[in-house]
Each structure stands twice: as structure tokens, then as C-alpha cells.
## 1
Amino acid sequence: MSELNRRSFLAGGVGVAGGVGAAVLLGVGLPYALGPSSASSDGAVLVSRLRRPRPFTQPLRVPPVLSPTHSTADSDYYAITARQAAVSIVPGTTTRIFGFNGIFPGPTIISRRDRTTTVLHRNELPIPIVVHLHGGHTPVESDGYPIDLVYPVDMRYLNAHRMAMGGSTKGMPGIGSDDAGDVSHGQRVYTYPMHQRAATLWYHDHRMGFTGPSVWRGLAGFHLVRDEEEDALHLPSARYELPLFLADRSFEADGSFRYPSTDPTMVNTPGVTTSFIAGVLGDVMLVNGVPWPNAAVDRASYRLRILNGCNARRLKLRLDPPPEGGIVQIGTEGGLLAAPLAHDDFELAEAQRLDAIIDFSRYRPGTEVTLYNDFGEGEMGRIMRFTIRPDSGHRYNVPDRLSDLRPVDASRAAITRSFRFQAGGPGWVVNAQPFSPDVALARPQLGQLEIWELFADSYHPVHAHLDPFQIIARGITGPGPYDAGWKDTIDLKPAEQARIAVQFNDYAGRFVFHCHNLEHEDMAMMANFITS
Ligand code: C2O
Ligand code: CU
């Protein structure tokens, strides 16, 4: 059965989103009604109040690479200031963003494996932030635990509003905790040992209850890790290596970002208005902060490092006319695959990354190659365009072996745990529990292989902090076509069950795993595991 048929089967032909259909079928009560839905994502489209820009009229931009403030024999030091800035996104308007260094996406950090990266994050925004390096193998004190707030330098705005979230989780619906978090004032140093493979990571806000609106307003950027194994491949680099931060957004008439917060102050009450509780879908597609951009590319091979940075939108990427050899996947969230995989299209859930080589060398100059999102409707069915220039560059021959990556032997697993990601409580829950800092759903031993059985009632991209995992099975079949390699986020579909092999090796402490649909995450679909 095709996915679409399966979904309408589950929905009983009622014409609602797959997620809802599945939930109804399974007898899970949904405490709310959903707005208009997109067929392949949870959530409702938030309609912009301005005239959307014409696709493919603005050039692609690439976020600047951040230089270290200083370096020592084994460490690089960076400084970033989160601040508001007025930037131009939709021509003729300005958008006030919350940006790392005042830009969206934030500056790209590039680390070397085993060189410590230290980032001083200063908070000049009116609201608290928490910085998480997504995909980082990071000690607990630098992992951006959701209540380890970095308060603003200037507290006037916060003081002017009631501070139910003031360092504790008291006041969050359904959650009472006396845990005050490890808070800092004005700034915080995050230290990343970077004992990990080359990979495409990203950093973003992770404040409890408010990650959705903060990331929507711009608090996210790329963080790439390089190593010798990757160097040896001589992959397309410099201008032939493009990080692409895909993010849907909606706009008010004046060009500001539109987001349906229950509490637009972003101080007291987390969550979104009822129709968006399943997720907020934008109606303008941004790539590196530019709506539907056009990139002029040489007739050459390019390395595209694509991030789905949407809050709730799933993407199905396809290039047309198709490139010679297809979309050649070389890596995923956890770095290089063992061997390349050619795809005609690629499904990418929220927070997932695709590392791919695209051969543009065979197109005629002037060809317009469009990157489509086959899950999107109307304008949202397109993402960006590549226009082929007459200039030729290097055509990269992707080697048959990319890296030393072995499938884990699931029979070695010491323990199996089950987690159910479902509607419930104040919004969304894991094993019937809304997030609380006080409750741990798992206490894995460092170095021990475990099987986690995940069940989802609707679309839930499940992400675990600290270490990546491998996907062992979906239902009664093996992993899907987009599941290869080391993953940090698995795209779970309505009524789907999957098995993943996880092994936490790096650091002891309390970490989170959660749904990366940011509206689900903010409405409590998050849980702790404590490693020791
Ligand atoms: Cu991208 Cu816990 O997050
Ligand atoms: Cu979810």
C-alpha cells in the first residue's frame, strides 16, 4: 500500500491528517481539534499576511564561517552574541529576527575532530536562551539542558513580565518541579570536546517550552565537524560545498515573522493556539534565510549538506531535471556512510540532515534545475533552483567505499526498552508522561548496547542527545531507504513501530530525547535518560 493509501485507510476516509487518523484508530483521544493539515506532516499551515515573494528571484546566500577569537594547541575559542536584528527576507519588508550574531541562519562553526571547541554565548535578547549542539557528543553541563537557562544581559523585559519559568519549571502546564536548572546570567561558556566523526551538526535554542518560537525567529545555525577520514576523500569543497538550511516560515503584513504563540511575550505560557498544536507549517520556504533562492552553479560536482530546519514540516526532496547518477547520499546525521547510496528522492524529517554529492557537470549551460519538495502543496512544493553556468569545474568520482562504518550487531543488546510517542496530557507525551526534569524514563549504562522500541501515533521525528544510533527495523521489515548509517533523528510515521540500536559511550548525566517537531517538543514530548 502506498503511504498515501495507507494514510487514508488509517484515517477511515474522513479526510484528516494521517496522524489524527492513526490516533483515532488506536483509540487515543486527541484533546483538541486540528486546523487544515498538510498530507505528509503533522500540523496546520499558518498563512502569511503579505504577498509572498516570487520564487527563484533572489540569489542563494551561504552563512559566514565564524573565525575563532583565539586558538591554542588543542582548542579553538569562539564568541557568539544572540541579539535582535532587522534583516531583509521578503523584498520590500524587514524582519526582526532573534539571531546568533544577529543573522539567520547563525554563523557556521567548523570544528576538527578531537580539537576542543569552546563557544562563549552572550544573550542580548529580551528572553532567556539555551544553546544545544544538535548531534554533538557533549558533556551534560554544555549540552543545553532545557532549564539551564542563559538569562539576558538586560533583564528589564523579563522583569516586566511574570516569570513563571524563572529558572524552574513551576508553572509549565502539567509539570511541577523544584529543579531550578543550572542557570547563568548574561552569558555562558559551552565546551565541546568533539571526540566524534566528521558530520553535519547544527546548534539551536532548546529552552523548555519555547524552542519552537525561538528557532522560528532565527536561533539556529550550522556546526560542521571535519576529520582525517573525510579529508582523505577530497570531497568537493570551498564553493563546491554548500550547507543548505531549509526552513518554512510565515510572515505578518509588515514582514515580521508570524507564529501562533499562546503567549507572544515568550515568557510565561508555552505552546501555540489550538489549531496549531500538531505543528506550525510556514507558507514561505527559506533556504539559508532566503525565500526560494536561485543558486548559480558551475558544471561541476557539489557537496550539498541539507538540513531540514523546519519546526514541523517533513520534506521529500527531488531534483528536476534529475542529475546524472541521482542524489548520491554520502552521509547522514552521524557522518559518512560506509558506501554511497543513489536516490531519486529523499525524505527528510525535521532536524535530519542529508549529505549528498550532486553532479551538475552533465547539464547544458542555462539549465534550470529545481529542488522540489514532493510533500509540499502549491508553492511549498518547491524549495530552490540551481541555474547551470557555462563554467566547468571538477567532476567528483564518488568512491565505492567512504568510511569504516559497521552495522551494529543487535543481538549483543543487553536490554530492550519501549517508548510510546503519543498525544496526551497537555499536548504530547512519551510513555504517558509529559516532560519533567524530575522523571527519567531510562537509565542506560555507558558502553552498553540497547534496543529501543519506538512507537508513534502520528509523525514524530524522534531525536536522542549524546550519541547516535542505528535503525534496525521498521515494523516487521528492515530499515527504510533513508535510514542508513548513524542517525540522531528517526522519522516515525503514523502508527509506526521501529527498533533502533543505541549505545551511549561518552558522558554520564541527565540528557533528553524528544520529538523534534518543535511544537510537540514544547508541549512536553520530551523525556530524560540518565547515563552512568
Ligand atoms: Cu535539535 Cu534536543 O534537539
Ligand atoms: Cu512529535
## 2
Amino acid sequence: MLNRFSRREFAKLIGSAAVVPSILPTSSSAEPVNLHPSAPVAHSFPKGFLWGSATASYQVEGAVKEDGRGPSILDVFSHTPGKTNNGDTGDVADDHYHRYKEDIQLMKALGLQTYRFSVSWSRIFPTGTGTPNPKGIDFYSRLVDQLLAANIQPYCTLFHWDLPQALEEKYGGWQSRETSKAFAEYAGYVAQHLSDRVKHFMTLNEMRSFVDIGYRDGRHAPGLKLSVAKVNQVRHHAVLAHGLGVQAIRAHAKPGVKVGLAENAEACAPIIETSEHIAAAAKAMREENAGYLTAILEGKYTDAYLAHHGANAPKFTADDMKAIGSPIDFVGLNNYTTTWVRADNNPSGYAIIPAPESYPHMMSSWLRVGPQGLYWAPKFIAQIWGVKEIYITENGASSTDVLTPDGHVYDSDRIMYLRNYLTQLHRGVSEGVPVKGYFCWSFMDNYEWADGYAYRFGLHYVDFKTQKRTPKLSAHFYKEVIARNGLA
Ligand code: PNW
């Protein structure tokens, strides 16, 4: 039997009347006829699954010279002519440093249960080490208080690429283990001051991105193109910083605080779901992440990684590896794309399939659509290493995002992207893969590194001239997902 609803009843049923009145059909003939009031949410997530969103300090805060903040390598890089699209810098960004209270009200309106932010190291230690700047920690303390008052759980990242410039000048940044040690001191200090209220800390964000893109390809700060041997050593200092950071957080934080990281592990997935391709993808998951996640979860570099690099392999001590392998409480996975794998007869047992030119991607050309990564990557991480708590600490998409004269951004491509990825995430969670929460990147449009402000990832559109925030259609979609704890 068909059920008919008035527009108002329908709106009440889907719970969005107050949010998008102008998007609902206006003519009565457009009323839905076949939606049953007791229709179950087809893909519901477990009770307590955490829905969140994420940002990072340099991408949103602005206020780069305020309250004693020291310069970071990102200030220097973005102000170097030719390094960023349109010469864009993070000088003002979303002005979140001044607008955080209003932003948290928007988070509340979206229904966010958790928010992942990062701390700017050079606000806390303007020259990387030494005497802390009390105004630095004070900002994050206020931010955390406001989040808790809005009933939003703070998840704190300690390093999202804004290395104090002083450490670059003094030590060559991550080229020296002195930077790893300085990171640990800074991490311990932040944990000491925030862990009465913040219960989840992530050490480093996307080591792969800042090491490989920053020190090998030169497209991100500090813009270096080092030799293979030197890049391998930088990579080692990054994982070492993570390990020393874990130890420092444990030493200084209140009991019960959980520590992890947010890594963009290669999300290896079988091109066809047969046992041979699945086994090959599992092998690829371990080896393709050998310099990062595998080293951290096993406390060693794989034999294949060391053999592959030979004389260029990183120099390390047994104590380093012990620190790197410090037990963690959760793995945060930033996932945007999928690495497709097939079985092969070569010694590794697998081959990565290069993307054909016609492979679909979002506005960023690297952002190839592959929702299955959200199923396979967490599943392999749980299977290979026995990880019991996983978060998707980033997932999202860039879109052309036009603000129409009627005041909306109809980002149907982002909704398509999110719906597909969340469906794959649901597939894993319903099989028992221990993913406990999901953070959409990003809460609002922001400074997209070398791509500047032209590449928008936000659920909220930001007019960078006026700083006005407008929820995109994808924000309405995500609000529904959160409210239903699942997908229709
Ligand atoms: C991540 N790539 O960066 C970062 O954690 C965010 O700060 C960033 O805004 C977001 O993803 C979207 O880009 C990446 O070229 C940057 O493959 C570049 C790549 C991947 C991730």
C-alpha cells in the first residue's frame, strides 16, 4: 500500500525541514509517495559510532603573527614566489583563530559528535623548543572548552605539517633526530596541559605526505628534493618522532588517555575479490606501508624494505625501533583513494595496477575515486596487526563548488563520493571491522596547501573575502547520516 504524506509530514519524517526548506520540492505533485514511515535505515552503524569532521591548524587558523606564534616552514614556503597556486598563503585562511566560537556553533548545528583539530607547534614553542608561550596553549584550551560545552569530543593532532621554522634552520628539520626529540618534548607539554579534557591524541598527520611530498618531490614545505638515502632518513626521523611522542604523551598525560596517529596508509584493495587477489592485496598492504605504518605496528622495517633500499636504507639503532614500535591505542587512517592490486608471480606476489587515463577523479587529480579502500584498508589493518580500534581520521573530496544565486552549493559529486565511501565503510563495520568513528575532511573549505584556496574540501562553503560560511548540500546529507546513524 502506498503512503502519502504532506510536505510537512515528509519533512518531519526525514528530519530536515528546518535545514533545507528551499531544497524540498515545493509543488504538491512532487510529494514522495512510496516512503514508508517505518522504513528502516538500510545501513545503520553500531550504537556509539562517532561521527566527526576534521581540520588542521595552518589550513584554518590564520592569525599567523598573533599572540607570540613563531613562523613555521609553511609560512616561509607559502610566501616563496611560485610555490603555491595563485601565491596563496595561510596568513588569514578561515580566520578560525578569531571565529572558533561561531564555527563550533556550526558544528553543533551539523550534529557533530567529535571534531579533530591540530595544534600549531610554533604557537606553543615559537622556536620549536625552550620556553613555552602561555598564550599558545591558552588558545587550544579555550577551543577544547567550547567544544566540550557543545558536547563535541575533541580529538587532537599534534603535528599537521607546521614545523617551527627555527628547527628547519637549526637542524634541517626532519633531516635530524633532534627534531624527533623536540617533537616529543612538545607533545608531552601539550598532553600535560590538555589531557584533563582531551582523551584522544594523534602524534603525526600523514607522514607519507610531508616526508615524500615535502622532502623528495619538493611540492610541499620545505620544498626539498633530497636523495633517496636522505629521504629514507627523514622518514625514519618521522616514525621515530611518532614513537618518542607516544612515550612522552604517556609520561605526561592523565591516565586513560588514548594515543594513536593519523596516517594515509596506502589503501591496498584486490582488483577482483578472489582469494588470490585478496591475499596479494594483504601482502601489498604490509609492504607498501613498510616505511611508516608497518614499521610502527611491528617495531621493525620489513626485510623487503631494507633489501630494496640496500645502501640507501635508513640508519637506526635497536632503541630507535623499540621506541617506534611503542604500543598505541588506535590507528587513525586518512583515506581518499584506493591502490588497486592484483596477484602476480614476481617475488613479492603482487603488482599495483597503474590508473588508466580515464580513471575518474575528483577536482584534485590525485583524488581518484575508490570507495573500496574504506572497506579493505581497515580490514587488513585489523587482520594483519590485530588492531582493535581504528578511526577514519580523514575522508572527503574536492569539488568545484559553485555558490549559486539562490545561496546554495549543490555539490552532488561530493555527496555521491561520500555515499559510496560510507557504504563501503558500513560493509566493513557490519562484518566486525573495528572502526569506531569517521571524520569527514573537512568541516569547511580551507587552505589546500600548494593548491591554495581554489580546491575546496569543505562541508561548509567559505567566502574567503567575507568569511561567510554556508552549509553545502553535502552538509545536509552528512547531517542526515549523523542523525540516522547510518545511510538510507
Ligand atoms: C591530506 N596527495 O593531504 C591532509 O591531511 C589534509 O591536510 C589535506 O587538506 C587533505 O588530505 C586533502 O588533500 C593530502 O597528493 C595531500 O596524494 C595530498 C595528497 C594526499 C593527501
